[in-house]
Amino acid sequence: MNQLIQDLEESEHAGHPLIDLERAINVAFQRIVQPRYRRTYTILLYRCEQTDDIDPLKTHTSIVRESFDHMLKMMEQAASEGRLKSCISPHCAARLIHVALQGIIYDWLREPTAFDLKAEGASMLNMLFTVLKAE
After folding, report:
1. What is the chain's alpha carbon radius of gyration, rounded to the nearest angstrom?
2. Could you read off the pLDDT of 73-129 as tens digits, one per residue?
3. How would you class 50 by CB atoms within 10 Å of its CB: exposed for 0-12, middle for 13-18, buried for 19 or more?
4. Considering the entire predicted model, what is its pTM?
5. The Transcription regulator MAATS C-terminal domain covers which part of the protein (predicted)?
6. How many angstroms separate the Cα of 5 from the Cα of each of 9, 21, 65?
7. Which residues pair with 133 in a beta bridge?
8. Which residues touch 22 (CB under 8 Å, ≥6 apart)?
9. Can you list the domains of the chain with their CATH numbers?
10. SS3 for the chain, per residue?
C-alpha cells in the first residue's frame, strides 16, 4: 500500500482525483504481477508470522490506514470539486475503493491463474470508478 501512495504522488496527474487514483492503481497492478513484487505481497499478506521484533498485524494495519487516509483525501477533493456523485460520501467512496482493491489483490495472490490482474483488475476498477464519478 505504501507503494500505491508513492505511485499516486508520482503518477501523471490528470487533475481529476478519481482518474488519478484509477491510474495509480493500474500502475500498482502492473507492478504486483512482477514475480519479485508478487512474492513480497504474498509473504506480507499470507505468510508473515509474529515474532518478538515484528508484529505483522500492527504493520499491516498501519499501512492500510495510511492508504485509506490518502484515498479519503482524494475522495474529499473529488467531492469538493463536484467530481464525485453527490449521493456517495467521500468516506463511503474511499472505503468502497479500498475493499475492492484489497479483495482483488488478495484473490489474485491466492490464485494468480484465476484471472489476469492487469486486464480484469483494471476492468473491475474502471466499472467502480464509473459508478463513483459525477456525470
Report:
1. 15
2. 999 999 999 999 999 999 999 999 999 998 998 899 889 999 999 999 999 999 999
3. exposed
4. 0.79
5. 17-132
6. 6, 9, 12
7. 84
8. 125, 126, 129
9. 2-48+56-132 (1.10.357.10)
10. CHHHHHHHHHCCCCCCHHHHHHHHHHHHHHHHCCHHHHHHHHHHHHHCCCCCCCCHHHHHHHHHHHHHHHHHHHHHHHHHCCCECCCCCHHHHHHHHHHHHHHHHHHHHHCCCCCCHHHHHHHHHHHHHHHHECC
Chain-centre distance for alpha carbon 115 = 18
Residue type, position 76, single letter: E
Q: How many CB atoms lie within 10 A of CB 120?
A: 14
Name residue 93's amino acid. Answer: A
Tell the residue number behind the cell numbers 494468480, with chain if given: 112
